[in-house]
Design a protein that fits this description.
Shape: globular
Largest sheet: 2 strands, antiparallel
Number of helices: 11
Structural class: mainly alpha
Order of helices and strands: HEEHHHHHHHHHH
Number of domains: 2
Number of strands: 2
CATH class of the largest domain: Mainly Alpha
CATH architecture of the largest domain: Orthogonal Bundle
Low-confidence stretches: none
Helix content: over 70%
Distance between the termini: 5 Å
Strand content: under 5%
Length: 262
């Protein structure tokens, strides 16, 4: 399947979804609207709200705050996950000692941690960053850990026979093995970094997309809620495209899988 055809099909899904939403919120069936505007708004109202938010500049400040929180959570969480993932994979004794504690902390509901971070770090950006870090760290950590553990013993043995030291093994064996696993986790962790930032803003803040959505919900402004969610979705797509571009640049050696069959 060509990329153009794939894009057309993806666009078709969006068009069909919006058409169903528009019909359900504007056309009465048996005298009843399937999607009452009070609960679902309408595509026209949401689009108008998004245009107004962009034109007046209201959204830009909040978007910038969420972007900073997301970027910090993503970078700190991913860096920590990569470092500890490599360390634990290369130190089986350390991994065995800390394994139950990592699983215990990873099992904690992050929403429970949000008020604690706000108490410790205040209502500024760092409480949101901390929440995002807890989401990103474990995703990257477990993927990198598994990627390093999956290195073929035969490849390692051959590399050592060629006289590679630990630094060369890291660069030419462990790092390429973990890279594919790492980038598969980064695609997911970008979304979770944003979730952490938005949830933190929703629970308590004075700026950000989560704050905008919370304010709109507080006055039953459904169009405002959906407009905030739309901006959020576009924001996620742009970040994901950026991660994909970096992935393609760093993994240029990897064979490209076919998109699909015609």
């Amino acid at each position: 399947m060509s990329r153009m055809k794939l894009f057309a099909l993806q666009a078709l899904v969006a068009v069909v979804a919006i058409a169903i939403w528009w019909i359900g919120s504007t056309v009465k069936i048996g005298g009843v609207l399937l999607l009452p505007p009070f609960f679902f708004s309408t595509p026209g109202e949401v689009f108008s709200r998004v245009v107004r938010m962009v034109a007046t500049g209201v959204v830009w400040h909040h978007l910038a705050v969420t972007l900073i929180e997301t970027a910090l959570a993503f970078v700190i969480g991913a860096a920590g996950g990569i470092l500890f993932g490599f360390w634990f994979a290369r130190k089986p004794t350390v991994a065995a000692v800390f394994d139950p504690y990592l699983k215990m902390v990873n099992a904690l509901p992050r929403v429970v941690l949000a008020p604690i971070f706000m108490l410790w770090l205040g209502l500024g950006i760092w409480s949101k960053v901390a929440l995002g870090v807890t989401l990103v760290f474990f995703i990257v950590f477990f993927n990198v850990y598994q990627g390093v553990k999956e290195v073929s013993p035969v490849v390692l043995a051959n590399a050592r026979l060629m006289g590679m030291n630990d630094r060369q093994l890291f660069r030419h064996v462990y790092w390429p093995s973990a890279l594919s696993w790492m980038f598969s986790s980064l695609h997911t962790s970008v979304g979770f970094a944003l979730v952490g930032a938005v949830v933190g803003e929703y629970l308590g803040s004075s700026a950000g997309l989560g704050y905008l959505i919370h304010q709109a919900e507080g006055v039953f402004d459904i169009a405002g809620v959906f407009a905030g969610m739309f901006v959020l979705a576009v924001f996620v797509l742009i970040i994901d495209w950026g991660v994909t571009a970096i992935e393609n640049r760093l993994l240029v050696w990897r064979p490209q899988a076919p998109i699909g069959n015609d």
